[in-house]
Amino acid sequence: MSGCCGPASPRRFLLVLILVGAAAALLAACSPKEPDIRLDQSQIDLGQVVNGDVRSFEVALLNQGDGDLVIESVSTSCGCTSAQAVPTTLGAGERGVLQVTFDSGAHGPEEHGQVMRQVFIASNDPDQPEAEFRFTADILPPGS
User: Fold this and answer.
1) H or E stretch at 74
2) How far apart (Å, rounded) are the C-alpha atoms in residues 61 and 89?
3) What residue spans define the domains of the chain?
4) Which DSSP string corresponds to 1-48?
5) What is the model's pLDDT at position 11?
6) Is the pLDDT of residue 131 over 90?
7) 56: nearest Cα among 81, 73, 76
């Protein structure tokens, strides 16, 4: 006895599986690929720095997403600090670097004591459009 309400045939079951799989594949292909910015470190301490010394360092910059990460701009909290991202576009899973230079004497020989500076990285990461990196230093008087 065959009818509309009998047990599903193996062919129908296979057809449904194929259609569901095709729909899932189509949805996955249509979903946007998004970048995901990550810094290897979010902050570091430079320790003691004699006023007038210039310190340069790098921090690893990562794209942990599945779309291209585009660094739109890099800015700093103070004129004594400069920074840039190299390269400015990272493919999925790629690494780059944030290059930072700090001039401890930029504010003159009177500057000493604990300081904290920030670097801001603007990108196309939809979840974190601006990443922040911080560093601290203990500025010693010149000639220390």
Assistant:
1) strand 69-76
2) 11
3) 37-140
4) ---TTSPPPHHHHHHHHHHHHHHHHHHHHHSPP---EEES-SEEEEEE
5) 77
6) yes
7) 81
- Residues of 70-87 as b/e, b for ≥16 C-beta within 10 angstroms? ebeebebeeebbbbebee
CB 21 within 8 A of CB 111: no
**Could you tell me which CATH class the domain 37-140 is placed in?**
mainly beta
Q: Are 74 and 83 in contact (CB under 8 A)?
A: yes
Taking only the tens place, the pLDDT of each residue in 55-71 is 999 999 999 999 999 99
Give Cα 129 to chain centroid, integer Å.
Answer: 9
Q: What is the pLDDT of residues 5-37, one digit of tens each?
A: 555 677 777 777 776 766 666 655 656 799 999
pTM (two decimals):
0.78
